Amino acid sequence: MTKTQISAALRVPPAAPAEAADFSAARLAFQADVSDVHASLESGDPGFVLVDSRGDEAWAQGHVPGAVHLPTAEIRDRAQDLLDAAVPVIAYCWGPGCDGATRAALALARLGYHVKEMIGGVEYWICEGFPVEGENGVVRRAADPLTAPVGAAHCAC
Fold first, then answer.
1. Are 52 and 75 in contact (CB under 8 A)?
2. How far is Cα 102 from Cα 92, in angstroms, rounded to an integer?
3. C-beta atoms surrounding 113 within 10 Å
4. 3-class SS of residue 71
5. Is 93 known to be catalytic?
6. Distance of alpha carbon 103 from alpha carbon 138, whole angstroms
7. For 98-139, what is each residue's pLDDT tens digit?
8. Is 87 helix (H, G, I), strand (E, B) or coil?
9. What is the pTM (predicted TM-score) of this model?
10. Cβ neighbours of residue 96 under 8 Å, at least 6 residues apart?
11. How many CB atoms are located within 10 Å of the residue 35 CB?
12. Cα dihedral sign for 149, 152, 153, 154?
């Protein structure tokens, strides 16, 4: 008698298709990836304002050009002066290992803003070879070939 092995990835079976569709749709309502944010900003009319929720030192070290600097700790006091409540906000922080964008999104949502997080944060922005503005002006590093296609504008996903 042969024992059937269940793969580690399928120990918990996939959700039903309708549940998976609901989850995926909800996730897209809460998050945007760096490639889509970049393409939107490059269009000249992104339809949102990008907020960097990191502190002063991180902002000075390097941020997405055109982003608004609004550290999470200052959102309650400064958001109304910097942001139009009618314009959606996309918040970012360092990267996927940081909850800063989530905390910023929560604070903004509690103030009534429509908000998403930029998944990957500035870390993946840089890995994909997009420009960063800092104390030394605007710099652009080559895309990391393990995170972005070489010679292509985006991954076409």
1. no
2. 8
3. 22
4. coil
5. yes
6. 27
7. 999 999 999 999 999 999 999 999 999 999 999 999 998 999
8. coil
9. 0.90
10. 119, 120, 121, 123, 124
11. 19
12. negative
